[in-house]
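Repro case for the chain-ordering regression, as requested:
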Amino acid sequence: MDQIVIVALVMLISIIILLNMGAPISVSIGLGSFLAMMFIFPFDNATQTASSKIFNGINSFSLLAIPFFILAGNIMNSGGIAARLVNSSRLISGRMPGALLQTNVVANTMFGALSGSGVAAAAAIGGTMGPLQQKEGYDKTLSTAVNIVSAPTGMLIPPSNTLIVYATVAGSVSVSALFIAGYIPGLLWSLSVMIIAGIIAKKKGYVTTDKYTFKEKMKITFDALPSLLLIVIVIGGILKGVFTATEASAIAVMYSLLLSFAYRSLTIKELPAIIIASTKMTAIVIFMIGMSTIMAFLLAYTHIPAFIASLLLGLTDSFFVILLIMNVILLIIGTFMDPTPAVLIFTPIFLPICLQFGMDPVQFGIMIVFNLSIGTITPPVGPILFTGCKVGNTKIEEVIKPMLPFYAAIFIVLLLVTYIPAISMWLPQLLGLVS
Amino acid sequence: MNFIKSKIDMLLEVVSVGIFSFMTLLVSWQVFTRYILNKPSTQSEILAKYLFVWLVFLGASYVFGKREHMNISYLKDKAPIGVQKKLDVCIEVLVLIFTLCVLVIGGLYLTTSGMAQVDATLKIPMGYIYMVIPISGVITIFYNIYNILEIIKKHYTKEEQ
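-- result from build under test --
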């Protein structure tokens, strides 16, 4: 057998075995690649190469945005921001059919625009909305379902750590372009959930007519304004070229700290625990990125992407069908793997094929992150699904049925994002971020 | 062993909080110097980047100690308890082997050869930056051994019940 084939097989098979054993994803990728590497280099050389690949994968200023956005998100979670967002969302959606369901979606979307963590959104917003929804007699499983299906939008709406990870593995893709490209697909996701929720609510006869006096409206808006100002500072700053995404993320930490101290929702004493929790989340994600650099090196060495491309092209020469196959594979992978490792593994395999067909790497990034975000709300492994059920006090089996129409709607949006480049590209093109 | 583990945990916690806070200040400071003082600081960016590398490696060791690295436990969770324990020991051993080869041995090579390389901006040998790789490797191996002993201990007490 050809040496390259042996290397490729050793790597793929050992990674698959290690992953299924339940070994850490980072070590599965790293050890599998290291084993394969020993077929190419002598032992000494392999250890050193692997070690320096990991170092180079981590040694990046743009990745530094990830710990800062994580920390800013954790600081905001501990603060009274969720309640303020819910109030202002109610102002927007208080008169739609199924007002409290709609409010949940809007609040999750806003929360996503602040922190980018779907799990945090499901916990914080779901926790605040749940009691309100129950008081007004909303079906518990339905409201839990709506909370779950609208929580992942934060992974598309900037700031999004998954998009930063994608930008790193994809090579020369601008984080600002990706951030801006995520807005419309993320909002479409929310919109599709709101439409379905509205139809169901109308059938069930959930009509709430919130009435606010002008004074109340002003107060609610002013309460939420400082939190929402963060979006303007971060995204505006990046767009205007005032600072890089990494610098913006550090400013986001400072701003959210100031806000939490002003709201008195956080004391200096609680800060170390929050920083340690953020360190752990950072280390888990970034260590995985380091490991995937060894794998990326071997993928290039063994020409696996080219091999898979020729396999796909042997099946069909229609890009339409190839994209469909990729999406189905990613959807299946996403049901049991988190978006970050899946992005790390599948970007180097699928992206070159799509580039051959002239797809923009920005659109591909939005497509893959959108697709894999669906996996966070599907069994058997779905962190947002689990969190949402825990917060909503509902069993997973009960919540799946009301979630079905939402899955369908989100899948349709995924197809739109896949086949209509303008949905992702229009906004960044308009702002001159991509040519 | 428990005593040493809690001391190492504490040390890593203190160091992480220190590095994380310093990094945040450094990058914020960078924006400040560029716009307010009109003096862009190139050193702060490089320094923040290296601090980040240290934070990630030390943080990764800390998480190995807590056995909280992200994994796919779907199949493992379905196995009987006895098999799960054996798998857990097996995983710790595999992590140990990987850490020994890549982080400790490979990292030591990098560190020693890096002493001759000098970072152009900070004017310090790269070896000092690479040093975190073998350090985190040794800490991780300690945690692996600790975890294996803990898993075996639990194994027996469960069976006695």
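Ordering looks correct now. Chain B touches chain A through 55 residues (CB under 8 Å).
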